[in-house]
Amino acid sequence: MPATRAFVTGASGQDGSYLAERLIADGVEVHALTLSGEVPAFLPADVVVHRGDLTDVAATRALLADLAPDEVYNLAALSSVAASWEDPDRSASVNGGAAVALLESAWQVSQAHDKQVAFIQCSSAEIFGEPAQSPQSEDTPLRPVNPYGAAKAYAHLMTGVYRSRGLHASSMVLYNHESPRRSPRFVTRKITSTVAAIARGRADSLVLGNLDARRDFGWAPDYVDAMVRAARHAQADDYVVATGKSHSVREFVAAAFQHAGVRDWEPMVHTDPSLLRPTDPTDLTGDFSRARTVLGWKPSVSFHEIVARMVDADLVEP
Ligand code: GDP
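^ thats the input. predicted complex w/ guanosine-5'-diphosphate below
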């Protein structure tokens, strides 16, 4: 049997590197799309890197037609919610329109080769925005409150449309997922890198925005595992991928300082109103029952262990 071939977009990010490692370990031939000029930090050497912009639909479609992959993982996105307020057009085009174009490209491959192409759309808890129910499940109405969430909601809905058309397309509603590879643009890594710097006497303050926001923080490699399980499951579907517990940004800060052994840290934490967002979901918590029942998936790393691993990694940074 020929080896499985996978096509991964957004491969230079946190999830892309873990996913590529996982697929290579499974014996999959991995082709990755990364934006021109980017040097993928953690990408395994065996990955075939294609430089390109997902919003160049013609080029991406031609590449996909040429590769005819068995699995397509759409991780590419403008992943910062905060930045989506600065550039809502590009957020719409990358997180929404380009995802739809990729669904169509995968559909065309499945038709041309008369084979199943498994498509994994990386969606986000932000599609729920300010939900009326907690925790959220696959049946929770979509109510995004920022440009990022609205664009992701469109791609999520279109994944369902292509599933109805016959494509093996699953949308993974991923809650926040973290690791030492998380960019410091996100709050968790900003906290752990700054707390580690404070512990080593290299910084004396941590400046944040909304400390009261509550998020369901999971371990990124677990979330990549959920994607692979969904791609290989007999039926495609939508899946909430979460831990079922939320913690405030303030709790994350306290846990990080505690793990780094820094006492009397409260006076070092400041809030800057410019870091507050125009609207920000107050509490996102996911119900992962479907992923557990259907995919046999569950989170493997606790909140405090995630904080500990990230602080420890930042403490050994040169
Ligand atoms: P998001 O949930 O995908 O937007 O992930 P982030 O890590 O960027 O933000 C998580 C939460 O932390 C949001 O509610 C932010 O408003 C809040 N937050 C508070 N201070 C900061 C900060 O300095 N940077 C970031 N990125 N988020 C912050």
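DSSP finds ten helices and 13 strands in the chain.
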